[in-house]
Amino acid sequence: MTPEQTWKDEGGHMSSTAGRVTHVAGAALPFVAVLAHQGSGATEHGFGTMREAEAFIKRNTPVPTRKLSPIYDRPAAD
Questions:
Q1: pLDDT of 26-49, one tens digit each?
Q2: Residue 76: CA atoms inside 13 Å, Cβ hemisphere, count?
Q3: Which residues make Cβ contacts (< 8 Å) with residue 30, sequence separation at least 6?
Q4: Distances (CA, A) of 76 to 18, 70, 71, 73
Q5: How far is Cα 51 from Cα 3, in angstroms, rounded to an integer?
Q6: Cα dist from 2 to 5, 7, 13, 63, whole Å
Q7: Closest of 11, 53, 1, 54 to residue 45, by C-alpha
Q8: Which residue would you say has higher pLDDT here, 5 or 69?
Q9: How many Cβ atoms from other residues are within 10 Å of residue 9's Cβ?
Q10: What's residue 52's pLDDT?
């Protein structure tokens, strides 16, 4: 079992629109994941490592939309 699988359930849905990690020097949990929510204020969640904070954001925010045109997915011409 990976460490991520042992983390508590965060609700099972992606109510956040974006997230970022901040660092608070000297705090017991120095890495803070700040999640933005549409229609309400941001929430903050403390973590011991940056990796944990980033994983939390990844689990609780939608996947970014595609930036490149699908034309780039075609095989190169011979």
A1: 999 999 999 998 888 899 999 999
A2: 1
A3: 23, 24, 46, 48
A4: 35, 13, 10, 9
A5: 11
A6: 5, 9, 21, 22
A7: 53
A8: 69
A9: 5
A10: 97
